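INFO  loader      accepted 1 record
INFO  loader      residues=496
INFO  predictor   begin
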Amino acid sequence: MAKPLAITDTVLRDAHQSLLATRMLTEDMLPATAELDSVGFHSLEMWGGATFDSAMRFLGEDPWVRLRTLRKALPNTRLQMLLRGQNLVGYRHYPDDVVESFVVCAARGGIDIFRIFDALNDARNMQKAMEIAKREGKHVQATICYTLSPVHSNESFVALGEELADMGADSICVKDMAGLLKPYATYELIVALKKRLAIPIQLHTHYTSGMASMVLLKAAEAGVDIVDTAISSLALITSQAPTESIVSMLQGQARDTGLDLGRLAKIARHFQDVRKRYQRFESGIAGVDVNVLEFQIPGGMLSNLVSQLREQGAEDRYMDVLQEVPRVRKEMGYPPLVTPSSQIVGTQATLNVVLGERYKVVPEEVRNYFRGFYGRPPAEMNAVIQGNIIGDQEQITCRPADLIEPGLAKAREELGELATSEEDVLSYALFPQVARPFLELRQKGLERKELLAAAVVLRLLKDREQKRNGGQAARGASSPWKWAGRRNPAGAPWGI
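INFO  predictor   done
INFO  writer      dumping tokens
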């Protein structure tokens, strides 16, 4: 029997996060929502990932208002978000009470599908978010972060899929964040997953290596249920494969999507005009980047590395850093390179190269990674390097969040009258240094454009202060939550 391939379009989230540094304003999305809502997509990915803090940090927008606004504008389409497990939409683990409240508020705000992943594929770090989303009656899509290493294989990915299904997942997503999947490898993986799992399988990949369209075709032939694409004007490079190309490719075939190319073309024209307004945020990557196949570095991480090297006046060391990343990754137990592990590995690799001595300087995030505060790596870490970094400090083996004290009450107390809702408290609990100035400006009654202008000024002042202090990247405020009596690492302000 013919089975249409379902499509999730990422134009409202991952597409502009990958290509335009997550800078798209809600007002530029709204004119296309009527057409998007009438297409018949399986879902629209429109929230989560880096969009949450970017809204407050760069756009003068409240991310919760964006969620409710798009929910109202897209009444007939399932809305989907990307949730980093115990990290939520941040860069460190949060306490269980914050996770619970966040998922509840997101569900009530309009999220239908929670795509939940962990950077280390540690299912323990996904457990709480999955449990709450399930309790709220929402679709739980548990995620396998795809990567290549001596310890990763189709069998290990299938085993993880089975574990996640047993935990209550309604569907499984294979998340190929770097564009590493090859067409025939994709076919084999999807067949293996479909053979062992009775729930739908979705595939998310990026065009970075130039193979995404071929990967999606082979996935469709293997029986994948849903694939992620991006409307053509925000596709390719480090984004997803073009929606229209996949729809056209399958017309008249067994997996015909049934979507209207004319309607999709109209949406593409809108975002073609929108993209012109964000040219200054383009990554600078012109097309296919073959480096990803050798170094497994996602596009967003590449741009972050370039920025770090530029700040240090060391752009000529770019290839040296690329070659150092796999070495650091091996020493850290082969974590998949996705937020926040990509930043942890990338930052350490950059320091190793720029300073001319490996692990001469070790950021707190790296130290905590080696102690186990981000979870269980896929493989054993290098014992010598680990010992040098953490000394006689204890390595934890439990679920990291079990050691974090509840945080909502303290966040509510610290925010005081600035909080007008539980959502404000959550924004502060996740990003205290970003949320407080945003909420203070909002309290003054500023309109969005005024908030945006004020946010730009504050950002410039903060950057100037950082340069005066020796160019050290801001690491966020001291966390009000503690890891077994020690301060939890603060959230870093960069993400992919």
